[in-house]
TrEMBL record:
The keyword Cell membrane applies. Belongs to the glycosyl hydrolase 17 family. Its main location: membrane. Gene3D superfamilies: 1.20.58.1040, Glycosidases (3.20.20.80). This is glucan endo-1,3-beta-D-glucosidase. It is an enzyme of class 3 (hydrolase). One of its GO terms (biological process) is carbohydrate metabolic process. It is a lipid-anchor; GPI-anchor. Coiled coil: none annotated. It is found in: Cell membrane.
Length: 476
């Protein structure tokens, strides 16, 4: 009786090898931000990445929990340094040595984390920072480069500085130039990057252009053709992303670095919290972007380049991000906070697959007690929403039309889940009520939180088959 089983196994393995041969080795990575009140455990997130064949991940810090979760994963990692640390790093070689030692060298061991880039600051030249970090960037780079050299890592790890696209400007791509007050610093930065073989990292957000300018032509933000193309000499631009990228290419060429490699550090589209932030638009933008990148079409100023590395923003929704830029800020994930794919998206290897082994709190919700007079509730709602996320309730959000009672229930539930369903957190002076019936209405989802220990080190089927495959490849 073992023979038929064996042949089935062989067929399965053959199919797996065949299909894995078709998988595209692409440079599409994701930004893994962790400002969420409901954090998935790093091991669940790492499994999610592997399971979706995402090979590159960009972090905003060097959180030991996250880095430990990435150990042995084989993923290519960019760690980050927050802007607040630039001054200290730039003023002391010792601080830089320490940082490299604690947050990088320690992980670059066998079975460790494959750290390839260090992002020195995050958009430190952003106009709204009014220059407060500007002068620390190059000194921090120089000290960190020395530290990497002392740790024998200078040839393996590249220092980069993710810049916001507001670092350069122009009405036509070919006229691109860095902001005048940044000319000197950009000259130093680009020369530093060039001498170390590092790429220029830029964050490009057509969504923000659309959101911020009522006269921005909607279809120019997407990749499906436009009736508002931009003609620039012999070149015609039909898409804001490509036009923006070429503006940077022109700005770099103007400084004499027309071949400097470029990586897109952040790009994406949010799904909630504003009218143009919705599932349809996010899917259209991200899918159009991915196909554009995978097609290696390049841009008019850089045709036929090898596929560029891009990092989607972001992997998961982050319900604790500041809403200063807008309510959409907490809804950039291609997955919701609990690792569920929000819409079908093909990153080159088939559609996104959901996270496994996510451990939810019990299926219960906190709502406004329908039998109670709710006249004094406003303060409770305000307090609940000052710590929990209520961004979907506002204009343009998925829960904007659910009525007064709906609003109150949403706020109560958001707070209750944030408090891990602690029974006291659904009191609200007797106006709250725990229910076992999901109050979600239409697109408006009333969430159930996840346990803080959400899953440990599960070996799932895919990881097992991957092991079998690797074994077979090694043997053959
Ligand atoms: C670097 O490592 C130290 C010690 O583990 C940690 O306290 C610090 O937060 C890390 N830095 C960053 C930017 O994550
Ligand atoms: C989604 O966003 C797109 C892009 O701005 C917009 O055209 C469309 O009307 C929005 N869809 C909905 C249902 O709001
Ligand atoms: C629900 O709350 C949102 C946000 O405060 C508000 O815009 C909306 O008008 C409210 N709806 C009702 C029916 O009160």
């Amino acid at each position: 009786m073992t023979k038929p089983h064996l042949s089935i196994l062989v067929i399965v393995i053959v199919i797996l090898i065949w299909s894995s041969g078709l998988m595209v080795e692409c440079g599409i990575g994701v930004n893994w931000g962790t400002l969420s009140p409901h954090r998935l455990s790093p091991s669940v997130v790492v499994d999610l990445l592997k399971h979706n064949h995402i090979k590159k991940v960009k972090l905003f810090d060097a959180d030991p929990l996250v880095l430990r979760g990435l150990m042995g994963s084989g993923l290519e990692v960019m760690v980050g340094i927050q802007n607040e640390m630039l001054m200290a790093l730039g003023s002391s070689p010792l601080v830089a040595d320490n940082w490299v030692h604690l947050n990088v060298s320690k992980y670059l061991v066998k079975g460790g984390v494959d750290i390839r880039y260090i992002a020195v600051g995050n958009e430190p030249f952003l106009t709204s920072y009014a220059g407060q970090y500007q002068s620390y960037v190059v000194p921090a780079l120089l000290n960190l480069q020395q530290s990497l050299a002392r740790a024998n890592l200078a040839s393996y790890i590249k220092l980069v500085v993710p810049c916001n696209a507001d670092a350069y400007e122009s009405s036509l791509p070919s006229q691109g130039a860095f902001r005048p007050e940044l000319t000197e610093i950009m000259t130093q930065l680009v020369s530093f990057l060039n001498s170390n073989g590092s790429p220029f990292v830029v964050n490009i957000y057509p969504f923000l252009s659309l959101y911020g300018n009522s006269d921005f032509p909607q279809d120019y933000a997407f990749f499906e053709g436009t009736s508002h193309s931009v003609t620039d000499g012999q070149n015609v631009y039909s898409n804001a992303f490509v036009g923006n990228l070429d503006t940077l290419v022109a700005a770099l060429s103007r400084m004499g670095y027309n071949l400097m490699p470029i990586i897109i550090g952040e790009v994406g589209w949010p799904t909630d919290g504003a009218l143009s932030a919705n599932l349809t638009a996010a899917r259209a933008f991200n899918q159009g972007l991915i196909y554009h990148v995978l097609s290696s079409k390049g841009t008019p100023l850089r045709p036929r380049v090898p596929p560029m590395d891009i990092y989607l923003f972001g992997l998961l929704d982050e319900g604790a991000k500041s809403t200063l830029p807008g309510n959409f800020e907490r809804h950039w994930g291609i997955f919701s906070f609990d690792g569920q794919a929000k819409y079908p998206l093909n990153m080159g290897n088939g559609l996104l697959k959901n996270a496994k082994n996510v451990e939810y709190l019990p299926s219960r919700w906190c709502i406004a007690d329908p039998s109670r007079d709710l006249s004094g509730v406003a303060n409770h709602v305000r307090l609940a929403c000052s710590s929990a996320d209520c961004t979907t309730l506002y204009y343009g959000g998925s829960c904007n039309g659910i009525g007064t009672k709906g609003n109150i229930s949403y706020a109560f539930n958001s707070y209750y889940q944030l408090q891990k369903q602690n029974s006291k957190s659904c009191d609200f002076d007797g106006m709250g009520l725990v229910t076992f019936l999901d109050p979600s209405i239409g697109d408006c989802r009333f969430l159930v939180g996840i346990t803080s220990s959400s899953a440990g080190t599960h070996i799932n089927w895919w990881v097992f088959m991957f092991g079998v495959l690797t074994f077979i490849r090694i043997m053959s």
